[in-house]
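Structure in, sequence out. Go:
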């Protein structure tokens, strides 16, 4: 099973209080636009579930063919956790949608002015703790986008190898000004195999029984990517 994660560095103004307590004071009940609930604990940390309502106008035809409009309220949710690391506070969102604006806006409403958010991306760096502590790792998947200047073209290329790849040895990329869109690594920790994929947007996909360990190792290095 694969789980997707995104991390955000967050700051709350002094005097705002404990964010966990602020979240716990806003349950999701009938008639409210958003709210929170405790979810099943994950990796030994408290985990929260954020609920919000979305109104959608549905069009239907009456028997005489005249359109009628009805407002339908739907409920969405996403799970997240608060992470303290290296003196900073981080938000870990599990299986995020295309954007998490509703969650961030709701947290800002709880905290007030001074609440700031910075997405964590892993471009140009390496999660040192992860690759130093796993028993073995190899690059098995790579997606790049690049421009071939002399031909005035843009190419998207995808590579895969069960044996592993070394980007510096890939002659096909010589002379190409490229950017890595995603990189997939196969890792082994204490004899257990798993996969972790880092995307240029900050989305990380992890699969395998060692998912809790890999998440923990990534979170050890979050401050390196601020």
């Amino acid at each position: 099973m694969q789980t997707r994660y995104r991390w955000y560095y967050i700051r709350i103004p002094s005097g705002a209080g404990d964010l966990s307590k602020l979240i716990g004071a806003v349950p999701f009940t009938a008639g409210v636009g958003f709210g929170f609930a405790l979810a099943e604990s994950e990796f030994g940390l408290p985990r929260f579930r954020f609920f919000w309502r979305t109104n959608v106008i549905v069009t239907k035809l009456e028997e005489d063919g005249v359109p009628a409009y009805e407002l339908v309220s739907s409920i969405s949710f996403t799970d997240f956790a608060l992470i303290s690391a290296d003196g900073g506070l981080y938000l870990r969102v599990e299986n995020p949608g295309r954007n998490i604006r509703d969650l961030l806006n709701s947290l800002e409403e709880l905290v007030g002015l001074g609440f700031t958010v910075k997405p964590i991306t892993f471009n140009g760096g390496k999660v040192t703790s992860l690759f130093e502590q796993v028993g073995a790792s190899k690059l098995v998947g790579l997606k790049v986008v690049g421009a071939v200047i002399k031909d005035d073209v843009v190419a998207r290329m995808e590579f895969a190898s069960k044996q592993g790849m070394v980007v510096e040895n890939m002659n096909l990329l010589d002379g190409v000004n490229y950017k890595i869109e995603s990189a997939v690594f196969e890792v082994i920790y204490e004899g257990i195999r798993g996969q972790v994929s880092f995307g240029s947007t900050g989305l990380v996909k992890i699969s395998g029984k060692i998912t809790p360990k890999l998440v923990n190792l990534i979170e050890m290095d979050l401050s390196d990517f601020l």
